[in-house]
Amino acid sequence: MHTLGRVSTLICLTGMAAMLAACVPADDPETASPQGAVEEQRSAPTAQQAAEFVRETEARLEVLSQHAERQEWVQANFITYDTELLTAEAKKELTAAQVEAASRAAEFTGIDGLDADTARKLNQLRSGITIPAPLDPAKNAEQAEIGARLKGLYGKGEYCREDGSCLALGELENILAESRDPQELLEVWDGWRGVSVPMRPLYARQVELANEGAQALGFTDLGAMWRSDYDMPASEFPAELDRLWEQVSPLYEALHCHVRARLGEAYGEDVVPQQGPIPAHLLGNMWAQDWENIYDLVAPAEVEDAYDLTGILQDRGFDAVGMVRTGEAFFSSLGFDPLPETFWERSLFVKPADRDVVCHASAWDIDEKNDLRIKMCIEVNAEDFRTIHHELGHNYYQRAYNTLSFLYRNSANDGFHEAVGDTLSLSITPAYLTEIGLLDEEPGSEGDVGLLLRRALDKVAFLPFGLMVDQWRWKVFAGEVGPEGYNDLWWQLRERYQGLAPPNERPADAFDPGAKYHVPGNTPYTRYFLAHILQFQFYRALCDIAGFDGPMHRCSFNGSEAAGQRLNAMLEMGKSRPWPDALEALTGTREMDGGALLDYFAPLQSWLDEQNAGRQCGW
Ligand code: X8Z
Ligand code: ZN
């Protein structure tokens, strides 16, 4: 899976191959030379030995990583006692090899005469492990078991009502999307959070072990290691995130203000106090990360809904495979080859009735050649239609870089991987739906404010959530808070960034972060925040290349082979170059920038400002 934490990357200053050798992590306050590295360097390994080491290591890790990937695929498709054990075994072996390679890489880092690729790959070996473990085999085994256990707990999670009937996450999510009864919403919101209560001690131990692993590699903690993978000094990355958040947060605040006011009208101001944070169970989504499901409650009174994509998909008799075929057709229209036959044979599209699977959508490239797959429990609705495009974006990226060497088979930075499919989803516009025959006639621009509001409930509402998850994790990894304080810190950050509050008093043993897939799954989350910024940059560039002229939100680059070629030029670079090079190849700019998102939503910002006139915003 793309999130498996391949041995991916690091490096420093942007785009200057000549600087790479000078950019060893030891320059950074968050990292230091691992013990023994300096002594080892005195025995003067040569550049040639370094290149040889990298070649051998890539070959070894490729074999182990493929095996672990296959094992993980089976576990995620059949969550059982045995698959959990087998996955932990495979993961243990892979992690041991990764950690060993990372410590050896440190011995070669910075030596004279390294070629740029070897220097880059050495840095990647050092920094690109999502969850390092201590070298001690017992601790490594313990960590692998905890990892599989946490994923299993989440995948098998359900909420059982007092009458004995049990609901899986998908069913709970549907209730949160559709019900407008605050009592029922609270029940399922709270019920799902029962799943994560037993995770807390396991998670706390995982943090200890992973930190020990990161420290042995010279990082202050696991958070510092994650931050070191963005082609810039790790210590500068948080400021880069702050910069992006400051650009877009006024738009979020305007959206929050409008939504709070309308929810107050719908549920009463005693349920939704108009001065403070919004109770988190009323936003149509289990984690309040995407608010599109409450569009009907906050929609502009003056405009008719332009169309309802869920209704169209259902009326036209789409099934899961039909939706995926439509996604594939979009990529084909850009000039990408069709997906391989094995994709259709081996993917999981529909939730099986008779066994536990991990339903959280994911994309896989098992052999890193052409064994592409997605795993999803697709329901026929607009949200899953978009998620299909998201997952396919991963698969086409994986295939585009499959000829590169092992350590370069990844996206430019992790935000890029998450942004590609979403970029195509932004292009699911009225014009596109008309072109592919799902709308009979392209609606006029009267309903555009509604379309933009829908989009903002998805994309803009997500931004602070995309940011806060790792703000929480980074503090946890840094030891700023212990297990007793995990949940309070989570809600402090939920309030600070999202302006949300828990709808009831959280029990002392609650571990609400664990109710979000990526926490027990140990998938870094800042990538999604970056992706939500980047996808608007990609989209704008592809629309320009396709020759679109008009308001940005109306553009579809469907059918533009010129756009497809430029996109592919970026994808096939994989992680071989610092990410600003990849960004420049597609967009002409070397900076991540919220400006494209703000331009896209400019008409909505004006509308929100009008709606909010006289309201007291903020929390
Ligand atoms: O986890 C995902 C994808 C798989 S990489 C379905 N996403 C995040 C989430 O669901 O929390 C996509 C958007 C954010
Ligand atoms: Zn993804």
TrEMBL record:
InterPro entries: Peptidase_M2. One of its GO terms (molecular function) is metallopeptidase activity. Zn(2+) 1 binds at H390, H394, E418. Keywords: Disulfide bond, Glycoprotein, Metal-binding, Signal, Zinc. One of its GO terms (biological process) is proteolysis. The active site is at E391 (proton acceptor 1), E391 (proton acceptor 2), H518 (proton donor 1), H518 (proton donor 2). The keyword Transport does not apply. Zn(2+) 2 binds at H390, H394, E418. Disulfide bonds join C160-C166, C359-C377, C543-C555. One of its GO terms (cellular component) is membrane. Chloride binds at Y230, R527. Residues 1-21 form the signal peptide. It holds the Pfam family Peptidase_M2. This is M2 family metallopeptidase.
